[in-house]
TrEMBL record:
This is VOC domain-containing protein. PROSITE patterns: VOC. Coiled coil: none annotated. Pfam families: Glyoxalase (PF00903). The lineage of its organism: Bacteria, Pseudomonadati, Pseudomonadota, Alphaproteobacteria, Hyphomicrobiales. SUPFAM superfamilies: Glyoxalase/Bleomycin resistance protein/Dihydroxybiphenyl dioxygenase. It comes from the Bacteria. Signal peptide: none annotated. Residues 8-128 form the VOC domain.
Length: 179
């Protein structure tokens, strides 16, 4: 396998009803770190990381935006592979039966290109990785996509409500906003 045909699993996306509650669960349960929040055309949500892999916790805004799973789907939505050459890797994937569903397959610098595999499972390929991910941890030529934490003020209430729920479960006093 050449470097251009080697994909590294660096992204898993969950489709959930409440991304902030789910994100807080994974932060509390297994210690993942929050990297950023998004409010895009397709979905809103939270990105977490273990330092190598990005976990996107998303709520899709419409059936169309969900890329075939449906707006109410809850579960693993797709996985993402960090590749060296998106255009070449996409050609290889399509030559062995993948079906392109979105993203510019001819743009080597684009965000990501989504396909489905032979079972209809969605996967991304990207040449840049995802927030909080690392291409080859420990190697001298590692590339890391370690953005500083970015939070969107519009989600403060949802984030605080999720934090309060888990703090209450642990029996901790949650300070009021005025304190």
């Amino acid at each position: 396998m050449t470097a251009q045909t080697k994909g590294r699993i660096r992204h898993v996306a969950l489709s959930v009803k409440d991304p902030w509650e789910t994100a807080e669960f994974y932060k509390q349960a297994v210690g993942l770190q929050e990297v950023m929040e998004i409010d895009g055309a397709l979905a809103e949500g939270v990105f977490l990381t273990d330092g190598v892999v990005n976990l996107a916790i998303l709520h899709f805004k419409s059936d169309e935006a969900s890329q075939g799973t449906g707006v109410d789907f809850v579960g693993i939505h797709h996985i993402g592979f960090w590749v060296d050459d998106v255009v070449e890797q996409g050609k290889i994937a399509r030559n062995v039966g993948a079906t392109w569903i979105m993203g510019d397959p001819d743009n080597p610098d684009g965000y990501e290109v989504k396909h489905t595999d032979l079972n209809g499972i969605i996967f991304d390929i990207a040449a840049h990785g995802w927030a909080g991910s690392q291409k080859e941890p420990g190697s001298a030529d590692n590339v890391a996509n370690l953005n500083p934490q970015r939070r969107l003020a519009k989600f403060d209430e949802r984030r605080n409500r999720a934090y309060a729920k888990y703090a209450a479960m642990r029996g901790k006093r949650v300070p009021q906003a005025a304190e």
